[in-house]
Amino acid sequence: RIAPGQIFWLAAPEIGPLAGEQPQPADGRYATEVAGIRVLLDGRPAAILAARPDALLVAASFGLEPYRAIRAEVLHPKRPAASTSLTVVPTEPRMVQAIIRPDGKARDHIVPGDIVTLYGTGFGRLQEDLSAGEVATRQAAPELPVAAYPSKFEVIYVGTEPGLPPGLIKL
């Protein structure tokens, strides 16, 4: 299961390049090809954020239509194409990192009054779409309102932030 804009790993033996790669964005977007390897989601190129010999970190397009089965294909210059079926769901939230720095210093615990920044993926379509692989240059909020995610904390902001990779959402 994946959501529009979700960052996820595709893992299989020898799926990636022999030497791992950490592609950097060029001209405001991440590459859709790394070491000759491409990933297609529903026939459209997907951004590759990282590549290891056994896995590819992929950012799904925000344009994927929920409630559909799609084909994920890995096209490798030295191996036969590999594919799998994925179901697109409206959201599939996953937290990937938490940062607690109210005073600029990292800490490993939370105290009352702290501002905690969380980063996640799988929050679904944005109110303003980014194209496949586009690095955020502006703030854009998910279509699903913050109130849809129950919390005991005051949520100040949910959305992209300039400079973040495609699919990474700041809370």
Task: Give the topology.
Layout: E1 7-11, E2 33-34, E3 37-41, E4 44-45, E5 47-52, E6 55-59, E7 68-76, E8 79-88, E9 94-100, E10 116-121, E11 169-170
Antiparallel strand pairs: 1-6, 2-3, 3-4, 3-7, 5-6, 7-8, 9-10, 10-11
Poorly predicted segments: none
How much strand content do the residues show?
25-35%
By DSSP, the count of extended strands is 11
Structural class: mainly beta
What are the secondary-structure elements, in order, as H or E?
A: EEEEEEEEEEE
Helix content percent band = under 10%
Please state the oligomeric state of the protein chains shown: single chain
* N-to-C span: 22 Å
Mean pLDDT: 83
Main sheet summary: 5 strands, antiparallel
Gyration radius over CA: 17 Å
Q: Please report the number of helical segments.
A: 0
Apparent shape: globular
Compact description:
This protein is mainly β.
Give an account of the 3D structure.
The structure is a single chain. The chain is mainly beta and 171 residues long. Helices cover 0% and strands 35% of the residues. It has no helices and 11 strands. Strands 2, 3, 4, 7 and 8 form a 5-stranded antiparallel sheet that branches. Strands 1-6-5 form a 3-stranded antiparallel sheet, with no helix packed on it. A hairpin with a 2-residue loop joins strand 2 and strand 3. It is globular. The mean pLDDT is 83.
Key features?
171 residues; 11 strands; 0% helix
